[in-house]
Structures are given as structure tokens and as C-alpha cells.
Amino acid sequence: MFKFCFASLQWFCNTGIDLLSIRQMQEVDQKVLQYESFLNETLRGDLQKITTLRDGCYEEISQYLQLKTIIENSLSKQENSFPHVQVDLGCNFYAKAVVTDPSKVFVRVGYGFFLELTYSEAISFITKKTKYLNNVVENLSKDIAAIRAQIRMVIEGLCELQNLNDTS
């Protein structure tokens, strides 16, 4: 047993590795695991959530602008009759419907509520709502850029801890 310990000690001395550097390597490995965990679980998860929120805002803006275009086209044609339309019942199932009062439209205002608005009121509401949503998208885009910068900083820190060169 004593010979084995002495041989182990001699091996460490010959290779230039001492117990202090082994402890430092273990601490570095633990820090690398902590940073990788933070990167994968926290930062990338937050990035995915905020990107999904921003994509939802883009979708909502698109729907409002599509409605605004339809309303403006109907106003320019001076046509107040929409005898037959298709209504989305959900899950992309459509049914034919007849519009009894084409002078007003129902606009989704949020939280599952709809308002019956005239064309001019609807256009005014859509303009304000899209302006608000564009501000939300701008803020979310700034948040996404900040998270991407944090991810890059953590990756560079990991490379520095592991003494790796940046290959990207």
C-alpha cells in the first residue's frame, strides 16, 4: 500500500501535476457544468419563450392588417353587401354565412372580447392596436437581442474556462 502511494506521488511529481492543480481543474469542471446548465435551461428557454411571444404579436398584426385591407377595399368599392362569407369555426374548419348588416364588423379587442364597430371605428381601432403591437414587438426584439448577447457572453466564458479557441 505504501509503495502504491509513493508511486502515485512520484507519478504526479514527474508529470508536473500537483494536488492543487487537480482541485482547480475540478472547480473549473464544476463551473463549466453550472454555466452550461444556466445556458441551456435558463437563457435558451427564455429566448424560446420571448421569440414565441414576438411571433404571436406578428401574427396578430398580420390579422389586423388583413382586416383593415378588407374594410378599405369594401369602402372603396362602395359596396355594403357581403351576401356570403366564410366563417372560421376553429381548427381551420369554415362554414358559409350570410351577413345581415354589412355596415358593421366585429373586431377582436383582446381577452376573448369582440366589439361591433363601424368601418371607420374599426380602421381607427386597428391603426391604434397595430401601433401598440409594433411597440411590443420592438421591445421583445430588444429583449431577444439582449438574451442572445448573454448567450454569446456565456459561451465565450465557457471557452475561456476550458482554454478553447473560438471556431465560429
UniProtKB/TrEMBL annotation:
It comes from the Eukaryota. InterPro entries: Prefoldin, Prefoldin_subunit_alpha, UXT. Coiled coil: none annotated. SUPFAM superfamilies: Prefoldin. Belongs to the UXT family. This is Protein UXT. It comes from Clavelina lepadiformis (Light-bulb sea squirt).
